[in-house]
Amino acid sequence: MSSHIVYLVLGTNLGNRYKNLSKARSEIDELPQTRISKKSKIFKSSAYGPIEQPFFFNLALEVETKLSPLLLLDYLQKVEKKLKREKNSHMKPRTIDIDIVFFDDLKIDKPKLTIPHYDWQNRDFFIKPLLEINCDQVKKAFSEINTEISQNLKSL
Question: Cα-flanking dihedrals φ and ψ of residue 46, to 5°?
C-alpha cells in the first residue's frame, strides 16, 4: 500500500489555543501509518460563519499516511473528541477543529466527507497556512477551479 499526501488545517478558539494546537499535532503524529512531514506557522484569524465568537489560531499540516480518507477522518474525529471538542460545534467556538482539505488529488463527495474541503478557496484561514507549506498544491487546486468555471461558462 502506498502513502498518500494529505493537507489538514487545524483551528482552535477556546482555552489555551497554543496548547490545543500542540496537543492535536502530537496526537496526529501518533496515528497509525501516519506522520507529519510539514507544518505551517500559526495564523490568527477571525471566526468564519454567522455566529460571533472569539478569534481562531490556525495552522496547516502536510501529512503522509497509508490510511484511507474515511479511516483518517475517523481517527481525526477521535482526536477532536479526546481534545474535548463538543458535539454539534460546527460554526461554534471549539477547542479544536481538524479539517481534511486535500487528500492526494482525490475528489470525494459523500455525506460524511467532501474533498477538497467545501469552500476551502474562500477561507483565508485555510489558504494562508496551506500556501506556506505547499504553494504548488494550492495553485494547482485554484487552477482546477478556474478550468471548471471556464468550462461551465463555455456551455452557457
Answer: -75, 155
Helix 17-29 to helix 69-82 angle, to the nearest 10 degrees?
A: 140
CA distance readout (Å), 46 to 11, 36, 134, 137: 11, 26, 23, 24
> For position 37, what pLDDT does the model report?
96
Domain ranges of the chain: 4-154
> In this structure, what C-alpha cell is assigned to residue 14?
477556546
Q: What DSSP character marks residue 85?
A: P
Per-residue pLDDT tens for 60-111?
999 999 999 999 999 999 999 999 877 665 667 889 999 999 999 889 999 8
Identify the pLDDT of residue 121: 72
d(CA 84, CA 87) in angstroms, rounded, equals 9
Amino acid letter at 78? Answer: K
Left (φ > 0), alpha (ψ -120 to 50) or beta: where does 49 sit?
left
Per the CB < 8 A criterion, the answer to whether 73 and 28 are in contact is no
Query: What is the amino acid identity at position 74?
Result: D
Region 4-154: CATH code: 3.30.70.560
Q: Binning pLDDT at 50, 70 and 90, where does residue 20 land?
A: very high
Kindly report the CA angle at 9 between 8 and 10, in degrees rounded to 5?
Answer: 120
